[in-house]
Design brief:
The complex is a heterodimer of chains A (147) and B (216). Chain A has 147 residues and is an all-alpha fold. Chain A contains six helices and no strands. Chain B folds into two domains: 48 residues, no CATH class; 116 residues, no CATH class. Chain B is built from eleven helices and no strands. Chain B starts with 5 loop residues before the first helix and ends in a 5-residue tail after the last helix. Classes of the chains: A mainly alpha (147), B mainly alpha (216). Chains A and B meet through α3 and α4 of A and α4, α5 and α9 of B.
Chain lengths: 147, 216
């Protein structure tokens, strides 16, 4: 990143969100080289929001740690794209939250599911002629008291 | 604070202590601790302190987390790679990596969008996409159609991609130069060897998409 006057950098850092957004829009339109630093300052305010939203929504959606961190990276890149537009953008925290939520809510590739623990299906065989064998007393049905 | 009373002093000290602890309350709650006539002065004083402090840390510090570190690294990398195609190359790469999209998959989608079916056309797409992502192309020469297609692939607004591709100021500004005209006579028929060397129409299309200017 280009280096600027440290006093000017500090002055930009001290601006509140609304003023910083106004400076951003102006530097984009006028192709001002300070655009880069203004963008950096705005992103540093947006990234914590991205992190929090991705974590909270990602955990609620059942995403793993790595997926949440990938969504955080994705959202950071998308926030930068939005901030490069010349038209005024929403307040940085709102923008960051919106982008982060979209990155979590997207379709994720299906995860390999662990094997489900379910009772084994009983193996039942039909024995032909069993009913007749019981009838003539050749076979006795199970008796819970004696067997 | 010279003309403030004891309540004024106490309210101000409490606000400063709360700020130091990161537990500041809304300004109104401190103003409520002082008599009405002292409120404008305390309000001004607290505003000065807040301005001098700069933007406050967001509640619930996340700056130590791995997600925060990775996101800041993305911002740093994308801004650091800003050049002839603005921040588009870095952004594309970051989004592709974050979404686990292989470059081949991007090329496949572009090929489908622009009906590029031949091997040479696909190779040209792969070559040019790689050059775009590595910042070797001039953003202002990339066609809107291509940027629109990339926006669809990466699920972003086309206006975002268009804005991101604006070259950084220090980047070279290439202008199209009018072709040198030759006067007189019809152009000679191309010889057979020349026609054999004519570029593949799909390759030509790909070259136009990546280098032919925004309207190509």
């Amino acid at each position: 990143m280009a280096e600027f006057d440290p006093i000017e950098e500090r002055a930009i850092e001290m601006l509140d969100d609304v003023r910083l957004e106004a400076v951003r829009a102006e530097t984009v339109v006028h192709d001002d080289e300070r655009f880069e630093f203004v963008l950096w300052a705005l992103c540093l305010r947006g990234v914590p929001v991205i992190e929090r939203v991705c974590r909270a929504r990602g955990e609620a959606r059942g995403l793993g740690e790595e997926e949440i961190e990938l969504a955080t990276e994705d959202a950071a890149a998308r926030m930068l794209l939005r901030l490069s537009r010349p038209e005024p953008q929403p307040q940085i925290h709102a923008l960051a939250a919106e982008v982060a939520a979209a990155c979590i809510d997207r379709a994720w590739p299906a995860q390999p599911r662990p094997p489900r623990l379910s009772p084994r299906a009983p193996r039942v065989r039909l024995i032909k002629g069993l009913d007749e064998a019981i009838e003539i007393g050749k076979v006795r049905p199970n008796d819970w008291e004696t067997s | 604070m010279s003309n403030g009373g004891e309540a004024f002093e106490r309210a101000f000290r409490q606000a400063i202590d709360d700020l130091k602890e990161g537990e500041e309350k809304p300004i109104e709650s401190y103003l409520g601790l002082v008599p009405e006539e002292e409120r404008p002065q305390l309000s001004q004083l607290l505003a000065d302190v807040l301005i001098a402090r700069g933007p406050g840390a967001a509640p619930g510090d996340v700056t130590e987390s791995e997600g925060y570190r990775r996101a800041v690294a993305v911002v740093d990398e994308v801004l650091g790679s800003r050049g002839k195609a603005g921040i588009l190359p870095g952004s594309l790469k970051a989004m592709r990596n974050a979404r686990g999209i292989e470059p081949d998959a991007v090329v496949e989608r572009l090929a489908a969008d622009f009906a590029v079916e031949g091997e040479e056309g696909r190779q040209a797409l792969a070559r040019n996409y790689h050059r775009l992502e590595t910042g070797a192309l001039l953003g202002s020469k990339v066609s809107r159609r291509l940027l629109g297609s990339l926006a669809k692939i990466f699920d972003v607004d086309a206006a975002d991609v268009l804005a991101a591709a604006r070259p950084a100021k220090e980047g070279p500004t290439l202008r199209s130069v009018p072709a040198m005209g030759r006067s007189g006579g019809e152009p000679p028929e191309p010889s057979r060897s020349q026609t054999e060397r004519l570029p593949d129409p799909e390759v030509e299309l790909v070259e136009r998409l990546f280098h032919g200017g925004s309207e190509a």
